[in-house]
Structure formats: structure tokens, C-alpha cells
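Task: complex structure prediction.
Instruction: return C-alpha cells for all chains below.
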Amino acid sequence: MNLAEDVQLISFGLLGVLMIAAALGVVLLDQIVYSAFLLGGVFLCMSGLYVLLNADFVAAAQILVYVGAVNVLILFAIMLVNKQETFKPVGNRWLRQGATALVCVGLFALLSTMVLATPWVVDTTVVLTSTVVQIGKHFFSDYLLPFELASVLLLMAMVGAIILARRDFIPEKMATDTQDALTLPERPRELTGTVSDR
Amino acid sequence: MDLSNDLAAQLNAGAILPEGLVIVTLMAVLVIDLIVGRKASSWLPYVAIAGLFATVAALVLQWDNPNPLAFFDSFNSDDLSVIFRGIIALSTVITILMSIRYIEQSGTSLAEFMAIMLTATLGAMFLSGANDLVMIFVSLETLSISSYLMTGYTKRDPRSNEAALKYLLIGAASSAIFLYGVSLLYGLSGGETNLAQIAAQLAQGDSDQALGLAIALVFSIAGIAFKISAVPFHQWTPDVYEGSPTPVVAFLSVGSKAAGFALALRMLLTAFESVTVEWHFIFTALAILSMILGNVVALAQTSMKRMLAYSSIAQAGFVMLGMIAGTEAGYASMVFYLLIYLFMNLGAFTCVILFSLRTGTDQISDYAGLYQKDALLTLALSICLLSLGGIPPMAGFFGKIYLFWAGWQAGLYGLVLLGLVTSVISIYYYIRVVKMMVVKEPQEMSDAVQNYPPIRWNLTGMRPLQVGIVFSLITTSLAGILSNPLLTLANNSITQTDLFHVANAAAVETVAQVAEDADPVAQ
Amino acid sequence: MNSGIDLQGSFIQTLTEFGLPQDVARALWIPLPMVLVVIGAVVGVLVTVWLERKVSAAAQQRIGPEFAGPLGVLQPVADGLKLVFKEDVTPNKSDPWLFTLGPILVVIPVILSYLIVPFGQNLLITDLNVGIFLWIALSSIAPIGLLMSGYSSNNKYSLLGGLRAAAQSISYEIPLALAVLAVVMMSNSLSTIDIVEQQSGYGILGWNIWRQPVGFLIFWIAALAECERLPFDLPEAEEELVAGYQTEYSGMRFALFYVGSYINLVLSALIVAILYLGGWEFPIPLDQLAGWLGVSETTPWLQMLTASLGIIMTILKAYVLVFLAVLLRWTLPRVRIDQLLNLGWKFLLPVALVNLLLTAGLKLVFPVAFGG
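Output:
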């Protein structure tokens, strides 16, 4: 998948502009829902950049994970708790925004100076075999240990998410006598006080 | 199959045997809880503790491993990592001892808590030996994510939720910054992820890379300083320590911090070897700020947990002194101090947990007159606090002396003097608690102590707590006088690690220069 | 295996023979597949709509559409025309931008997914080496469009419908992807071409459905849920949610949803045909048949025959599956939302994982049959 140079350059420019515009929208817009949708746009543009880098698998994974899962969950959270609330405008808001902008511009200037000043090593080797195969080989050779550790990490993240999200079960003996056809099998259990000795 | 044997030998898989044992324990805890259910919770903690002791035993066998590099150099099991992994595993053992009763009373389930705690241990242990950028990041995230989960574990407590959210947001931001710095390293070295190879590549690099390298250094240190809660990156510490379950705080203040120091040592001494002067300078600033701010702000605290939070910030400042010294003695004193800090800090936290379990409060003023009601608790807490403050003949005193001596030898006169002054300040707030407990007359007793329940050790989970208290009491009071074995251990761990032989040559040259750099700042 | 017909190559060659420069010929080729895909997809939808109306009528012992054209085949066209001329209402206090963007975001990924559907050895638009994975990734964008339209309609039924749709498609994407993964493991490639080729050679006996019966069922159930077809049409369950996220839509924007859901159905059927039913392969291995009859592989008429048979076979298999889906729609009751999620997370997911594990084990033990 080697696009012609011009097409590549134009696509890069287009994606870059789109991405920066969307990212600015994420930060600057007042409506949080717009920010969330634009975040999806940023992720999509990013996957476009991966395509330009010949990393097609990463691009597809980016869409699947970030757009299809992360962004949808963010939207879910926003829509489920979408409370219309009028916030009191903060006094001297421009001062805070100005300071933030100053810091951001400064950081941007610093980083871009660094990027331009540094002689980066450019890797010109063209990957001829499928990128999927390359990734797989790395996972099972030099990055084997991090790959396996990531599985433990994901397992625990899953367990933890379930713990945080679930409602606690009432103990079995209490459940039997109050169980009606229509009540939910789980309900918040009574708080055990910190002082009580059970 | 001989194929698998061959593979294991090729990967040098034996090097991660301790971590493998932790994983097995973790799975055992999860699966047993799943199958046996609630009934298992009375003996499940002991499974975890047994697993961790097996881990420590495996670590002992790893000592002086002639072939420490494993998994294509992505993990290094040299003596430095062994000792840090040992500190982390032991801190988890004591934390589990103290958490059984706490979790029982908070009405949450114990098995998952231990599983997450073991995952955090696993991440921290891998982090201590990680020798590859990818490995570093994955293990750092394993540690961080399980820490966030534990912080918010008592989810019906709004303070715990607040703590978890704050920790998560700040932690995610610092991870992102760290990742940015690390990615710069990857780019500057021309696509290497292995620390040694990065160092080799950077050594060849031209001077144009200096700015990039400096930014990479600052960003990486920002991530590390968040883990060890050094001062400009400490904002999360007091709130998180106050809100989260106390056993978690104990782990964060010892295990997680030790892992942070291990990461700092390995990364700065290999990958950032070419900018030793710069990172010494940054760490000097961090150490000065941590010692001053940690100790001064701790004076004003009314909550015991917040006070211990600021004290842990200050202690991190002291430990950094050993890093800045840049000599073998400096590193050895770091390790020695962390070993002692493990016992005295965890001892203090165990006492705080016991007190809050019995009275439901952790305000310092509520400790008034505790001596009359609970002598053992008073004794243990006093010894641990005095040791943290560095009063002879407790263990902490020897730890601090060694640190300061190493710093003085390396010519860090200003820093050492500052350390001495702030130590004296710290003694004030430690002694204040001790005085509150011991000296008060019966009529000055706080309400909480007046309503102190009768001491019963036969409740579920109380016995392990008692064991934890007595154990840390004994080690804290004896490790000072009989500190020789620990000292030898710390010294050996440094002298037998290749990492320092490489670094030493560079360090010796720069030490004098650094001392000059550091001095004006300190004064 | 012969290479069949190379459409792009012959098209460009023909144009250059007419004296056009190579680059212009290539540029002329670029929009062609896109147009072809859109036309193909729309025609597919029209056929499916007709099929749905006829089959549902038969299931209820009615006649169904019969006046518009012979057997009512023009009925879907009439439906479409009606939608085009209908007034396009934007509800009060809705968010006009998101309201318009929502249906577009639902349709575009589905149409894009046609990129990877092969109708023959060279009869597909791009042979990406991430092939089937691209389809999974693209289909995960659709929930964003659904959430968008649900949110912007300013209607509680729409919002609930959108949320349900997103929850449903996220839940069923996992077993779906795991089922695909088992197939991919056998063919050692994500490319749709390789997946079909791996099934070729033994006619109907070589198809993946025999090696992956469980995977086939999981995939089919999950695909139905992804398409929001009955028995999984929770997002638009009339009794509870009026019409779900489509409640406020009318005219062209509604037509986009309508078309999108049917394109998705046809697409899913095509993918099932490719993954499990041998794609363009004829039930009897044609090459060997030709070999017995003494016809050379390179004979032009044989190549033409295999190519057209390939297209016909793919479409035929897909429409049999569409017919099955329609039949399911009119025979099965709708599941409840908690049953739906339970089925997805507590049944399909573990079964899909076990299936994956078994496939891996079988691949190690019988590398001949399960792709070494």
C-alpha cells in the first residue's frame, strides 16, 4: 500500500488540518457532547495518519478501540448523566484562559523548536511483508514479556471495573425471605458501621 | 517437550520466577474465591501471604544470578532489582496483614482486594527490573491502574471516590507526560527500546540532540517524580492518602515508592547516563523542595493520615539525597533506608489502622491519652514515629546517618545540612503525636479514647494485625542496633550490580562538578 | 489456482489501447469501483426489501405487494421514491447538525465495508491484508452515528434507542470478532481472498462451516444483533420505544437509516458467505471438474464461466442467508434487553472464547485440516 507521493502529502496536510481543528474544537467548545463527537473525529484522523505510515493494522485497531469503544463509552457516560446545569460564570475568566493559552503556546514553541532542531534518524526500510505478521513476530519475540504482562493488566482492569460498577449482593440468608418476583436480585446492602464489631 | 525446555532456557525464564509465583498466587486467590465463595475469606489471605513468602524465597535464590538478563534483555534480574522486588513483596505481606480486618469492617470483599493488591505488587516488581521502554511502561501502568482501583475500593465512601478520581486524573496525565518523554528517547536513539542500547546510541549522538534529550529527561522525571511523590508533583498525595483505604496508603507509601526509586535508578543511570549532570541538578531541586515542603507542611496537619502523607513526601526527599550523591555508598544508603523505611512506615500505618478500627477516627487530637487504654498500640506507634523522625537508637536514625554520611562524602554539604535541619523539624511533629498519647492526664483524654472498646484480639483479622504490629515494632527497634546484616545486604546489592560499575566511572568524574552545582542552590 | 479476471488491469489496458495515457486511465478507474459499490449496494437493498415484503406476506398467508410491476418487484422503488419526496422534518429544539450527521455516519462505514467483499479471485475493490479486520473496525463506527441521532432528536425515546443500539452493538462486537478470529487463525491471514482460498479445493466439504459450526452460529447470531434485526431489534422495539433512534426522522434522512440497515444485512450475509460458506466457490470443485473433462484451466470461456459462477454463487449464498434472516424475523419473538445483554456477555462471549481455544488446539493437533 504505497500511495503516490503527492497524494500522500496532500492527505497528510488535510488530515493534519482536520485533526488540529477537531482537537481545538474538543478543547474550546462549551458543549461537552460536541467535544466528545469531535474527539471521535480526532481519533479517525489519527488512524488516517497511521495509514499514511503504512501501519494499516494499527489504523484499523485505532478505529476499533478508540472510536468504536473508548469514544462510544465517553458518549454513553455523557448522555446518561446529561444534566442541564447553568454554571455561574467565573470572574476574570479571560485571565485564566490567557494564562493557559500562554503556557500552551510556550510549550508548543519549545516542542516545535526541539522537533526542528533535532536531527532525527529516519528509517527508510520498506516493510514488504504484512504488517500484521511483523507485529505478531515482535509480540512473540522481543516484546514477549510486556505482551504477557499486559494480559494480567487487562484481567485486573476488568475485575476492577466490575468491582467498581457492581452493586453489592446481600448475603444469601437475607435474600431468600425477601425475594419477590419483581424485585431485583441485587440491592445496596446496609452499610456496616466502622465502629461495629461483627 | 524438549522444545519448551529449550525455549525457557533461551528466554532465561527462571529470572521471573518470583513474578511467576505472584501471578500464580493471584490466580489462585481469584479462582478459589470464585469456586469456594464467601467461606474462603477466612483463610484466603494466608494463601496470598504464603505465595508472597514463596516469592521472597525465590528472590533469595535469585541473589547473585550470574545471568540476570531475561526475555531478550527486556527484564534484568540483577541484585538491585532483587532487593527492590524483595522490599515490594515484603511491603505487600505486611499490607495484607493489616488489611484483613480493615476490609472486613468496611464491608467490601477481601479476595478481589488482595487480587488487585497482588497485581500492583506484580507491576511494581516488574518495574524494578524492567530494562526496556515498553516493559517499563506496561509495568508502570499495571502498578498505576491497580493503585487507582485500590484507592477507590471502598466505593460507598465519598472520600475514597474523590481520592480515586484525583489519583486517576493526575496519574493519567503524568503517565502521558512520561510516555511522551520515553517516545522522544525512542526517536532520539533511532528506534531502540532497550535501555542499554539507547544509552549506546545516545552516547554517539551529536550535540544537536541536546535539547531533545533534555526534554525527554524532564518529561521522564516528571513521570517518575509523580510515583515517588517528590515535591512539585506531590499535589495528589495528601488528598489520596486521606481518602483512600489506609492499607492502600501503606502500600502506596512503601511499595509503589520503592518501585519508583528502582525505575529512577535504572532509567537515569543507563538511558540518561550522558546527561548525569542535568538529572543530578533536577533531583537536587526536587530533594530540596520535598524536604522543606514535606516537613514544614506536615507541622500544620491535624489528620494523622495527612501528616503521614507529608512525612512520606519528606522521606522521599531524604532518599533522593542518596541518588544525588552518585556514589556506591549513596546508592547503598538509599537501599538501606528504603529497607528500614519499609518496616517503620508500615508499622506506623498498622497502628493508625488499628486505632481507626477501634475508634473510627484518625484525627491527631483524638490520640490524646491513649497510653492509659492501650499500651501496646502506644508503644508501637511511638517507636515507629520516633524511628521515622530519626531518633537514636531506632532504625531510622541509622538509615538517616548513613544517607547523610554518604551525601557528605560526595560533597553535598548544603543538601546534608538542609536534611539535618528538616529532620529536626520533622522530629517536632512526630514527637507531638507521641506526647499527645503518653503525657496527657486521664481527664484530658479525648472522647474517642474515653469510649475505647475493650481490647479483643480474637475477632476476625485482628490476629494478623497484631502480628504485623509486633513484627514491625521488633524490627524497627532492633534493626538499628543489629543493622549489620541489612547494611551488608544493601551494600552487596549495589556492589554486585553491573549497572553501577558502568555508571560509577561517569559518576566519579561528575561528582565534584555536581557538588559545586548543587551547593549554591542549597544555600 | 488461476488468477481469473483482472478487471482493473484489463480496463486500464483497454483505455491505453485507445490512446489514453496510463495515468489518465488509472484516474478514470478510481471512481468506477465506488460507483459500482453504491449501485450494487442499493440494488441489493431493493431486492432485499422486496424479499422481505414477499416473505413476510407468505409467512402471514398474505399476498404482499403485487401491483407495482410483476410480482410487485417495483414496490421497493416506489417506497424509495415516496421517501425522497416526503417532507424532511427537523424537530423543534433538536440539534440540526448532529441530526443530519447521525444517519450519514451510520451509512458511510457500512458502504465502505464493501471494499473488502470479494466476488471472485480478483473481483474485489482492494485486497487489504487487514481485510476482515477493517470490516470489524468500520462497523464499530456506526454506534457513534446512532448515539448522535438519538441525542440530537431531543426525544427521550430516541435517546434511549440510541443508547440501546450502542450498548447492543458494543456487546455483540466481541463475540463476533472472536468468531472471526477463529476463522482467521485457520487461514493464517486477515485477507478475505486468503480466507476463501483456504476453503477451496474440496467443494462443499472444504467450507469452514464444517470446521467452525459453533463459530458460524455465534457469528450469525452476533451479526443479526449488529444489524438490529429481530429477534434483536431492541433499539427500535415499537412497544417500548416507538421507533427508537429513528422516531423523529422522516424523508431522506430516514431513508438513510433504512437503506443503511438493509445494506448492513446484505453485507453481513455476504461476510458469512465468505467466512463460512466458501465465498465464490461452487459446491463442486470446478477446477477438478474441468480437469476430468479435459478442459484446460486457461481456456477463456472456462475463465468467464468461473468468474460469473463466482459472482452468482456469492450472491446466491448471501441471499439464502438474507432469506433466513427474514424468516427468523417473522417467526421469533423479540428478546428483552436484559436477556439480550445476558446472552451476549454470559453465553456468546464464553462460548466464542472456548471456540477460539479449541480451534487453536485443533490447529496444533491436525494442522492438515485446520490450516497449519
